[in-house]
Amino acid sequence: MARTADDTWGVGESVGATALGAAEWRARENVRPDRLFTDPYAQVFLDAVAVRGIPNSEFSEELMARLQETDPHVVRGVRAQQDYVASRTRWFDDFFSAATAAGIRQAVILAAGLDARAWRLQWLADAVVYEIDQPKVLEFKDETLRAHGAEPAVRRVSLPIDLRTDWPKALCEAGFDPALPTAWSMEGLLAYLPASAQELLLDRLHALSAPGSRIAVDALNAAFFRPENLTRLGSFFTEIRDVMIRNGGDLPDTPNLFFDEKRRELADWLREHGWRADELEVHDMMARYRRRAPIEDDAGVPHCVMVEGRLPR
């Protein structure tokens, strides 16, 4: 599906397919004995899409075993991508845990997708978590977890609204208090926004952030949009998509969902606006959780930077 400035999607469609892919990797991680986190809800989402007939990649262990015989390099690349998503998930989990330990009681998850942190993490008793995403994505998420009988571990407010529209107004009308410190997260988001939309999003977020607020982002730096990196990612996704089609499945054409536009370095933007910002290169982030892949196998690992910002009190 070609991207436009005002496109929309549901789970399994366009950008919504990437949320489903991340859920699959979290489900695979959840059954590993050395798992980095516990997320029993990821498989709930996969089961729900299977019932509804929504396309899903389904990198089953049976398929991976067959591919090990015919395309072992693809298996290594897919495993590296899975380790990246698992490490990224744990990094954001740790961010929210640290914010909670610091007494922050208000969190906003931008482009929440099929993230289940409001259900599976520990929060302060009087905390509130706001989740913002496309209406059809949140509708699927809410209906699926409700049917499963899952109750969030915190007061959770679902805001079905496009981040390219006036989401701050909707957020404040839903009870968000801009006078309180907030923990913000943007996971797997920025590549799918035009540069101008990213700038507007950051401006709005900053305007809503009280002193003491924190932010966590897997940010795209200049290295991500270098032609050789986009070619590397494009080749990897084309190959595994072809493999999936040959085996009766499908994958989204992920690189074509990106907005390949020059944009400011996120850490620099934050510092210019008074935030303290720390950067962690993606391979170092994976190494922190003992999941770093050999360089020859990391074709599906985006060359991003994990950025954590804090607004001084």
Automatic annotation (TrEMBL):
One of its GO terms (biological process) is methylation. The keyword S-adenosyl-L-methionine applies. It holds the Pfam family LCM. GO terms for molecular function: methyltransferase activity. It comes from the Bacteria. Keywords: Methyltransferase, S-adenosyl-L-methionine, Transferase. Its EC number is 2.1.1.-. InterPro entries: Ppm1/Ppm2/Tcmp, SAM-dependent_MTases_sf, SAM_mthyl_Trfase_ML2640-like. The keyword Ribonucleoprotein does not apply. It is an enzyme of class 2 (transferase). Belongs to the UPF0677 family. Exhibits S-adenosyl-L-methionine-dependent methyltransferase activity. PANTHER family: S-ADENOSYL-L-METHIONINE-DEPENDENT METHYLTRANSFERASE YKTD-RELATED (PTHR43619), S-ADENOSYL-L-METHIONINE-DEPENDENT METHYLTRANSFERASES SUPERFAMILY PROTEIN (PTHR43619:SF2). This is S-adenosyl-L-methionine-dependent methyltransferase.
